[in-house]
Design a protein that fits this description.
CATH superfamily: Quinohemoprotein amine dehydrogenase alpha subunit, domain 2
Helix content: 10-25%
Order of helices and strands: HEEEEEEEEEH
Strand order of the largest sheet: 1-2-3-5-6-7-8-9
Largest sheet: 8 strands, antiparallel, barrel
Distance between the termini: 44 Å
Length: 189
């Protein structure tokens, strides 16, 4: 019993052990308005993140539209991938306007999510430097077909991450001791 308790205690202290506690899954929205303007779709920009989380992996899609939807930046499924940590998430968004990879950070702040763009790469993309997003009650902000495509793409991202982790664990594991009377396996070529 002591070993079980000790194992659980050590597991809880490992980095990233708490990362999955705060599930960032869902639709997060922000209206970015000029200083003297209340929320008005004709005068405010919109920023939407639809996130799917599995363990410490994050996947999703983004949409940014300027006031009046004059210009839009939306990505394919998925346009956003990243890793969840105790402090939030480090993500990369691929712009739909050009093939730029824009790194960002998400931090949970109460009932909101704080987005911060970590770099300002040159190119044609529309992602705000920062935004405070609120969780929407809607399950998706995208068309049903795109939502199905996004879920399937994120499932693939999660499966590939799990396989990469499995391979990394196997490579880090010490080689098995041969059983007495058996010879050690020949090295792979």
């Amino acid at each position: 019993m002591k070993r079980l308790f000790l194992s659980l205690a050590l597991l809880a202290l490992q980095p990233g052990a708490h990362a999955a506690e705060e599930d960032l899954s869902g639709v997060w929205t922000a209206s970015l308005c000029p200083p003297d303007v209340q929320r008005d779709s004709g005068k405010c920009s919109s920023f939407v993140l639809e996130l799917h989380q599995q363990g410490s992996k994050l996947c999703g899609a983004h949409l940014f539209s300027t006031a009046g939807a004059e210009r839009i930046d939306e990505g394919a499924a998925p346009s956003l991938t990243g890793d969840v940590t105790d402090a939030g998430a480090r993500i990369t968004i691929v712009s739909g306007r050009s093939p730029l990879r824009v790194p960002g950070e998400l931090k949970k702040a109460g009932n909101s999510l704080q987005w911060t763009r970590l770099e300002n790469p040159k190119g044609d993309y529309l992602l705000p430097p920062s935004a405070r997003l609120a969780k929407s009650k809607k399950k998706t902000m995208f068309a049903p077909m795109f939502e199905q495509e996004l879920k399937a793409a994120c499932s693939s991202v999660f499966a590939m991450a799990a396989e990469a982790q499995r391979r990394q664990n196997e490579a880090a594991a010490p080689p098995a001791e041969p059983v007495k009377g058996e010879s050690a396996p020949a090295p792979a070529r």
